[in-house]
Write a structure and sequence with these properties.
The protein is α/β, with parallel strands linked by helices. It has 2 domains: about 1-165, 3-Layer(aba) Sandwich (Rossmann fold), CATH 3.40.50.360; about 180-250, Alpha-Beta Plaits. Helices cover about 35% and strands about 20% of the residues. The protein has helices at about 10-25, 30-35, 60-70, 90-100, 125-145, 160-175, 195, 220-225, 250-255; strands at about 1-5, 25-30, 40, 45-50, 70, 75-80, 105-110, 180-185, 205, 210, 230-235. The strands form 4 sheets. Strands 2-1-4-6-7 form a 5-stranded parallel beta sheet, sandwiched between helices. The protein has a two-stranded parallel ribbon with strand order 3-5. The chain has a two-stranded antiparallel sheet with strand order 8-11. The termini are close together. The mean pLDDT is about 90. InterPro entries: 4Fe4S_Fe-S-bd, 4Fe4S_Fe_S_CS, EFR1-like, Flavoprotein-like_sf, PSI_iron-sulfur_center. It comes from Phascolarctobacterium faecium. Its cofactor is [4Fe-4S] cluster. GO terms for molecular function: 4 iron, 4 sulfur cluster binding; metal ion binding.
Length: about 260
Amino acid sequence: MAVIFYLSGTGNSMYAAKSIAQKLEQCRMEGITGYLKVPYEVQDEVVGIVCPVYCMALPPVVEAFLQQVKMVPQYIFLVVTMGAMSGQALGQGKELLKQRELRLSYGAQVALPDNSIVFPSPQARQEKLLRNAPAELGLIARNIKNKYDNYQHLDRGFLWKYGGTAAGMWVLDKIKQFGKLSCADDKCVGCGICAEVCPAGNITMAAGKPAFGSECVHCFGCAHWCPQNAISLGRLKPDQKTRYKHPEITPAELAVQKERKDEI
């Protein structure tokens, strides 16, 4: 049996996880945030992690998952989705697992449209990345089925380990400083899509309007999925040029990742 744990805000990583899972035998998918609510002993022989790159590194919630997940599989793989560069993400994952005497057997990256708002992928590039993704993910899935091992090539170099961490954290900190999530009441129609897609369950609907908690994982999903462009993160707000969500993923699919699950 195999399981893929994933984190996804605008659908890229869920699309990647689905594509890989469909090509593996007896593979299920579970949300990282859902697992962290009720951790259990993972019995699967093959365990995968699929997540986006945040500022050239792993998202903090994925770091927390790798530090807490209870597992002793025979084969672990990590696939990251990125707009341009994966930075230190794969090497970081390798080191986090190594600290727990676990081995990252295989790491890979796949380029998909950027959803950072700050560095949006132009429309032509979006179309190209979406066209190329199935072939890239097909190769990744074949490598996983064949238990391909590239452990020796996943180390992050000195510059990535120190300079990359510092640069990534600086950028993420600046994004956080832009301000808290907010919703323009005059635009909001109370559809609840923002609450549905939030992987952390950080958004609840109160009197037909979204209420934002303190557990935001900075996936930007709520802002991108809002049909009225009513949500912003301080000065960061997607418009028609910067708004993006994966065309093959729905809000209902994303909603599943935050569900609490017992041991399977």
